[in-house]
Amino acid sequence: MSHKLTVVSAAVATLLTSYYYYQLKDSRIRAQLPLDIETWRYPGRSYEAEERIWNVFGPILARHGLLSWPWSGHSSLKTPDDEYPRPNGYNELFDESSSIKLVNLKNWFYWNPLNRAIRTKEGQDVVCRVIVVKGEGVNALNSLRRISTGLNSLVSRNHALPMLREFSFQDIVCGIFPMSGSSFGELFGPNSHDRCEASVGDTLDLFIQAFEALAFIHEKRVAHRDAFFHNYLVQWDPESLKHQHVRLTRPRLYLIDFETALCFPEDSLYDDCTCTGLPFGDIDDYALPTPPGVAEGKPYNAFYLDFWQLCYHLAFLQTGIPELDELLLGLVNMGTAAAALDALSERLGLIPPIQLHVQPMYREVVNGHTFYPRRP
User: Fold this and answer.
1) Rounded to the nearest 5°, which phi and psi values hold at 301?
2) Which domain of life is it from (predicted)?
């Protein structure tokens, strides 16, 4: 009997030792990681500071069968084995003859280190996003759970990338998302002409999808609050002008970066979904345009802010068709993404596609504002 007790005691002691060892190890790892979202986004004035965070976080990724892509310089990561990523349906290549695009497939560029290119143990390449740190980011997490998981993630009108899974480490919560194409910001705007060959038709098709994306999340009572065109990814570059024909297929657009999102009760009335304040930061460091009243701290409809943000840059587009240009200028007056989606779709349905197969042009000023706002 005493021998059995000794064996049991030894087993319990081993388990406790192992438990406290990993607790201590995890505590040491957590102590080296940022204490808030902002510090993770801007950990220092060097890429080495960004890399240090993910190197520390590496053992936590490994527990979940995940391996970080290695750093390749500046804000760029490269595939672990220098091979092309596996196809996933969200990131495709239209022009395989382009050496630049082939090289870019093996590289992944990030805006800030909250995002990381990751390879799963099955060999699939995905993106890991830090969503919550010490309770900050819960609104974003709840929004993503509502929009990007379950039945909603299967709806064709939903343009948010699905959250394939989430995992946590102490007070940190991360989401795993499919790796998709390049930013819409690279395909649209006055500065895109030297690197983009998307036609007016290509561009307007993407904006229609963007309005559809907003209409869907608003229907589900989620407001994005940073819905400018640069927060969308494009499955592949359409490049109709390069190939000199109207595209028979169109790339899909994906809405990303729900960091500033608000998740209202699902039975809320549309007009009751209001908030106050800027989406992030304060008036001194928020460089993006805002509709009247937002910067002054007045209550505003969160869904209207999304709609206004998307309309802001679209108004600068000139298509060469006066009636269509007039519609784009006044689109913001329609008030909702759903109304704009219907109006724009109806108008484009009356225009032969060949008329939209032209180079986009841009107004220099709209209502006293420039495409790229200048800070005072």
Assistant:
1) -75, 125
2) Eukaryota
Q: Output the six-digit token pair for 265.
A: 């009760």
How many angstroms separate the CA atoms of 256 and 234, rounded?
A: 11
Helix (H) or strand (E) holding 169: strand 165-169
For the stretch 230-280, pLDDT in tens is 999 999 888 888 877 777 788 999 999 999 999 999 999 999 999 998 888
Question: Please, which contacts does 217-220 make with residues 24 or more away whose CB atoms are closer than 8 Å?
Answer: 217/143, 217/147, 217/158, 217/160, 217/255, 217/306, 218/270, 218/303, 218/306, 218/336, 218/337, 218/338, 219/338, 220/146, 220/147, 220/152, 220/266
Contact (Cβ atoms closer than 8 angstroms) between residue 197 and residue 239: yes
d(CA 368, CA 112): 31
Backbone φ and ψ for 101, nearest 5 degrees, come out as -70, -35
Q: How far is Cα 178 from Cα 164, in angstroms, rounded to an integer? A: 7
The model's pTM is 0.90
For the chain, domains (ranges, CATH) are 33-178 (no CATH), 182-362 (1.10.510)
Structure tokens at 175: 């989401």
Q: Count the residues in the chain.
A: 376
* pLDDT at position 16: 46
